[in-house]
Amino acid sequence: MYPFTREKLKDWAGQDALRRAEMLVDHGRVRGLKSLPRRLEGLIEARPRDIVCAVAFPKESGLPDNQCPCRDNREMGLFCHHAVALCLEQLNIQEDPVRLKKLMEERKRAERIASTSEEDYLTRVPAGTPGSIAIRLCLRFPEEIRTLWWGESIPVQIQVEHQGQRAHIHEVRSDLKVSLPQQEDNLLFVLEDIAEGPVPNELELSRADLANVLELMSGMRVWFERTRAGSRRNRCPPRWCWD
Ligand SMILES: [Zn+2]
């Protein structure tokens, strides 16, 4: 628990800074708050550049130690609205479990991004970018999907197609710039979210994820791995394909 309330923040910073801090919080400009013992850290989205702000609460003084790099603090020694915004965000999180959950997800995502290399992702650019190649995203499902549906997860092969040739997604060279149709680009973002990082060649989908993915694939071709002899092509809708 931190040694402040909204009233206390108003005493320390004044009505004007409190109001500006409330605006930052209301507009979602406080990112990745870290609630450390007797210390808050976070990023304030600001113009012309973001501010990495911190404020500590030393036990002895009972007063906040503002470590914000902004001019209000450095040159005028004010308890600036950035520091107040961190405090308000903390109060909101304490009072609102949904906000806390969102923060935890944001932190997890930031850690994930920090631990993966950009090279593990496809270098995606808008269609028509000079030097880029247009590819398609292909998801290949196991043929026995109906029985697997009741299992823990369903393995899906993630492939890309270029000029009629298909390859696993990690076979695409990291120095190539590629473009995907918008729907497939969105789908790839969702798959990266499910994978919590770059999409592997084979991704295990839970039933809920699979339902979500199939919905996003509306109108796209669905490929199945052929695992048994014989073609069942005629029994399927025309956009469902086997090799
Ligand atoms: Zn500041």
Give a quick summary of the entry:
The chain has 243 residues and is of the alpha/beta class.
Rg from Cα: 25 Å
Largest sheet: 6 strands, mixed
The stretches of 5 or more residues where confidence is low (pLDDT under 50) are: 229-243
Total of helices: 8
For the record, the count of structural domains works out to 2
* Secondary-structure class: alpha/beta
Q: How much strand content do the residues show?
A: 15-25%
**In sequence order, what are the helices and strands, one letter per element?**
HHEEEEHHHEEEHEEEHEHEE
Helix amount: 25-40%
Describe the structure.
This protein is α/β, with parallel strands linked by helices and 243 residues long. It has 2 domains: 6-115, no CATH class; 123-242, no CATH class. The protein is built from 8 helices and 13 strands. The N and C termini lie far apart (61 Å). The model is unreliable at 229-243 (pLDDT under 50). The chain binds zinc ion. Residues 53, 68, 70, 72-73, 80, 82-83 line the site of zinc ion (ZN).
